[in-house]
Amino acid sequence: MITRSDYEYLGRLLQEHSGLYLGPGKEYLVEARLGPVAACLGHPTLEGLVRSLRTVPQPLVVKQVCEAMTTNESLFFRDGTPFTLLRDHVLPGLIEARRASRRLRIWCAAASTGQEPYSVAMTLATLLPPLDGWNVEILATDYSRAAIARARAGVYNHFEIQRGLPVSMLLRFFRQRGNEWEISEEMRRAVTFREANLLDSYSELGTFDLVFCRNVLIYFDVQTKRDVLERLARVMAPDGYLFLGAAETAVGLTDAIARVASLPASIYRVGAGNAVPVGMAS
């Protein structure tokens, strides 16, 4: 059984390096996820791993611990409605607004094993030919190195394929490979995957027309949520959009972004003045 002191230490470590807020009552989760990490690193007990971290918190070990505690839950077209709104309202408005530059930049933060950015890429592909000749960039990032490696490979099992992926998309963009399904080379080329921490600076990433940061803020404390949202707002185009998860909100956290009240989803724009129906001028 993990001691209170070790539990509190791990909580501080996780929050400092990954933003993950452990909170009280998660001892069982820590033991289940970090017990195998301790064994892999040659520690017979979790206490031994914590003692090692307290003595010399080696960056690679800290990273391994944080990754083990990260929840990499994802599925294709998660929650449905946001992707319908993306296809029918948000993307058509952005395409019209970007007609002169013919450039569109999208960031899927906390992309996990890739289902979300690939869902965005497949949605964009259904809009062709309107995007023929456009420079469309989809950047997908995640804290977990293992998750990014899986996402980049684009190979999914039957269970993952059956969670949210329409049959029409399966037939068009995947090919069966034994007991698994591999996404097409076209979709893999459409997305750039890289490892990144939401606690770090985003300034080098440039400006985005559309940002997905879904189902990750729920794991952060209030101050970390506020900080992430305000830094996301700074890398969004003035008329860009931010998609949060169904159980997430920016209301009461920051005035840097405001919810688009006309849409039945957690979709935000920069500043209160932009909380207007999609398709209207900002």
Give a verbal description of the structure.
The protein is of the alpha/beta class and 282 residues long. It folds into 2 domains: 66 residues, Orthogonal Bundle (Chemotaxis Receptor Methyltransferase Cher, domain 1); 194 residues, 3-Layer(aba) Sandwich (Rossmann fold). Helix content is 42%, strand content 18%. It is built from 11 helices and 10 strands. The strands form 2 sheets. A 7-stranded mixed beta sheet has the order 6-2-1-7-8-10-9, with helices on both faces. Helix 5 crosses helix 6. The radius of gyration is 20 Å and the shape is globular. The C terminus is likely disordered.
Please give the domain count. Answer: 2
**In terms of structural class, how would the helical and strand content be classed?**
alpha/beta
CATH topology of the largest domain: Rossmann fold
Task: Give the N-to-C terminal Cα separation.
Answer: 56 Å
CATH architecture of the largest domain: 3-Layer(aba) Sandwich
Strand numbers in spatial order across the main sheet: 6-2-1-7-8-10-9
Number of β-strand runs:
10
The H-level CATH homologous superfamily of the largest domain, spelled out, is Vaccinia Virus protein VP39
Radius of gyration: 20 Å
Quick one: CATH class of the largest domain? Alpha Beta
Low-confidence stretches: 273-282
What is the mean predicted local confidence, pLDDT?
91
Helix content: 40-55%
Please give the largest β-sheet: 7 strands, mixed
What's this entry about, in short?
The chain is an alpha/beta fold. It contains eleven helices and ten strands. Strands 6-2-1-7-8-10-9 form a seven-stranded mixed sheet, sandwiched between helices.
